[in-house]
Amino acid sequence: MVGISTSPWWSWTHGLMVRSYLPVINTLAKGLDIRLGHRVTNVVRRYNGVKVTVENGKTFIADAAIAELGVGLENKIILHFENVFWPNVEFLGVVAGISYGCSYFLNLHKAARHPVLVYMPSGRLAKDIEKMSDEAAANFAFVQLKKILPDASSPIQYLVSRWGSDINSLGEATSMCYPGSVHGAYSTGMMAAEDCRMRVLERYGELDLFQPVMGEMASLTIPLQISRM
Ligand SMILES: Cc1cc2nc3c(=O)[nH]c(=O)nc-3n(C[C@H](O)[C@H](O)[C@H](O)COP(=O)(O)OP(=O)(O)OC[C@H]3O[C@@H](n4cnc5c(N)ncnc54)[C@H](O)[C@@H]3O)c2cc1C
User: Fold this and answer.
1) Which tops the pLDDT comparison, 185 or 174?
2) 96 and 148: one domain?
């Protein structure tokens, strides 16, 4: 299947990363100075770069920082059921006259064989859902499901994300084309890095400032195992 596709891999339908994203993360992180456990609290632009302060007061000087990587909001309400009562499709959705009424569920049973549906509200609806209790949010999702499957049985467990108010996220879905996805995050991250490189280039005229990293990225190969859902 992989071999016959003429489109880029991120435009295929959903696939399951058999060995998780770890091989991708490990490969992309090679040669980079990544500090874990350093939550940034302040970024100040200086005449020759930026000063970054982290939670414990430590500071770092850098050439540039990404200032305007836009971010939207998408949340996930995960509903776990006793049994599967829905059709064997990838998504179940509702189309409505107003965007607030549109919604969709990802069928995790197709990939993970568990009786789980993931409701994914976005935009204003996702924001409003963050103000609800977990129970009210799960109930809201269930009401949406009932619009598709009136005989749906109630979930036995639920989990509600609040990415907009999580200080480690403050949102999700940076990409217009592939919102709320790893490939969307990757492509917008690459665009932001390129934008950053161009601005540094304009300001300092240093052609080779990012070239070691960007050059290595171009020649990266990451062995992946993807199972089609
Ligand atoms: C439950 C769940 C399931 C998902 N399933 C899929 C899926 O199947 N397929 C798919 O394509 N996408 C999926 N996604 C979406 C995908 O995980 C995200 O879109 C993607 O990880 C976003 O990448 P990112 O690099 O922008 O942000 P993140 O992966 O969130 O990385 C941001 C990092 O920055 C750190 N950070 C935050 N604030 C600070 C700070 N102030 N200082 C320093 N560090 C900070 C965070 O700790 C985090 O490590 C899922 C998301 C969730 C929550």
Assistant:
1) 185
2) yes
Q: Each residue of 25-38: pLDDT tens digit?
A: 888 888 888 999 99
Is 135 among the domain residues? yes
Within-domain flag for 189 = no
Average pLDDT of the chain is: 83
In a domain, 90, yes or no: yes
Q: Which pLDDT band holds residue 212 (cuts at 50, 70, 90)?
A: low
Q: What percent of the chain has a predicted confidence (pLDDT) above 90?
A: 38
Give residue 78's pLDDT: 97
Which residue range forms the structural domain that includes residue 110? Answer: 77-160
C-alpha count within 13 angstroms, C-beta hemisphere, residue 83: 4
CA of 152 to the centre of ligand 1 (A): 31
For residues 35 and 38, what is the distance between their CA atoms, to the nearest angstrom? 6
Ligand 1: which of 24, 75, 122, 181 to mutate, most ligand atoms within 8 Å of CB? 181
Nearest atom (ligand 1) to Cα of 174? 26
Q: Evaluate whether 69 touches 188 at the Cβ level (below 8 Å).
A: yes
CA atoms of 146 and 41, how far apart (whole Å): 43
Residues 105 and 53 in one domain: no
How many angstroms separate the CA atoms of 182 and 64, rounded?
24
Residue 17 CA, closest ligand 1 atom number: 8
Q: Report the distance separating Cα 58 and Cα 37, nearest Å.
A: 12
**Nearest atom (ligand 1) to Cα of 188:** 26
Residues 137 and 212 in one domain: no
With a 6 Å cutoff on the Cβ, whether 197 touches ligand 1 is: no
The reply to whether 52 and 81 lie within a common domain is no
Number of domains observed in the structure of the chain: 2
CA of 207 to the centre of ligand 1 (A): 31
pLDDT tens for 30-66 read 888 899 999 999 999 888 789 999 999 999 998 888 7
